[in-house]
Amino acid sequence: MSDTLGIRRDREGAKARRKTRRLFFLKENHFARASRLRLFAVSSLLLAGTIGCHNIGTGGTGELVVPQHTLREIDSVEPSQFAATQPTTAPSTLPTTRASTRPVREVSLTIADVRRMALHNNLDLQVDLLNPSISRENLSQEEAAYEWTFTTDAGFSSTDSPTANKVAQQLSGSQSENWRLTPGLVLPLRTGGTIDLSVPMNQSSVQGTSANVLNPLYTSDFTARLSQPLLRGGGIDVNAQRIRVAFYGYQQAQAATKLEVIRVLAEADRVYWRLYAAREELQVRRQEYDLAVAQLDRARRQVRAEVSPEVEIVRAQSGVADRIEAIIIADNTVRDRERDLKRILNDPQLDLQSATVVIPQTQPVPLYYKVDPDRLIATSLRQRMELLESELSIAEETANVRVARHEMLPVVTLQYTYNVNGLGGSMQDSFAMVRNSDFQDHNIGIHLEVPIGNEAARSRLRQAMLRRLQELATKQQREAQIRQEVLNAADQLEANWQRILAARQRVALARRLLDVEIRQFEQGLRTSTEVLNAQTDLANAQLSEISALTDYQIAQVDIAFATGTLLGASRVVWQPAPAPQH
Fold it and tell me: What domains are defined for the chain?
């Protein structure tokens, strides 16, 4: 009977154990399916990130793809492809110039108009005026390094751990869930340290726990952490270095832009006077042509009067043909100078392809200036933007040397943590414990790092000192170049004035010589060639005077540029390009 009861109990125990294992495996299958689903989701994300990776950089993500033939094939061209008419082997008529056609429009510009239009429209200035704005944004970026940062960490975890019960001869499962949220603030300090404030919140629940344990369990803490370097990396002066460097860069960008404004305006003045010289040269060539035509008429009258041989007509015609070629060359020079000025002005009404004729209205004023080189040099050393850029670079390198010396110190960091603990059966109870500050933690420590040898910091210090010496030498080099530029400009101004005087005397003598040659020709004592040569000498003398006048004006522009100023009484105030609105 007892054996029967024992067998029955063994069967019931085995049945209970099989039922327990069945329930356990059912739970295990449930969590296994959930785990497989999560694994499938993560794998899908990873697979989606790898699909199409071979197209990145080749147009798959919107890149500009240039065809290979555009990059590698070089096309050929024939001049006939751009010809407006069919090419011929030789001209059928005399060549014509723009002077023989009616221009679309004429525009008279003064030197002040040229400067104003260059300031508003010049493409080089439009590019350079953006540099100060870019540097200013870089400075703002460095200043924003001390802005507070809000941080949040959130997460969820679910665990299902098997547990073997040796007494019951079975496996059981332990499931738990944990929700966590940690908002916080990070406060960078200008002394190099940081303050990290956070409120970690946690909610955890465990199945099968004792009734004496809170389940679910809520925790909420308030944590404040301070990390402050005491030697290396500590202090306002050292940590402000990035802002200081950005500020020097901002000022250097403004100095470079001011130099570019002066350069563009000076170049506009030079091109203006070169256009004036080209138009005056064209006028001289036309007068020379009129004189050659007048000589041809005289030669024909002399031949008809049988005073001169018929060869004089041929000589005069040859002279007229030579003058036509000179007019063509001079007219083309005028067009080139006009395009130079139009490019600098970049005005929509003065397009490079338009036939608009630009007439310089401001005339050169040949007044003698006795300049003082010493005063010019003193002014240039005070106002040249290149020297200001060098001074800013020296100031930056001096600060770098100071920071490099600081970097040789050991690392000593003070670390302090203050924590208020909160615990309860609900989040409200947990925060109530935090508000009451019932449980507080304090943790303070010192972190020390002393490099053995410190050779890297010594090398950085030597490099900073060498760069500072380099900037000092660069400033001295620029000062020598500026002195040379000023002295050369002063000498050139004096030389051009002497050229004006010599050219005027030469023009007067050439005009008298031409009158004499014409009278001698009318008396049959000179040939047309000699008269034409006298006309050429007069034209060359007039061109020399025009060249001396314009070079004298350009020399004044060069002196102003060498001293970091603009010629004239008008003052220019430039503004950086505004930053785009976001």
Answer: 148-156+171-242+410-454 (no CATH), 245-396+462-562 (1.20.1600.10)
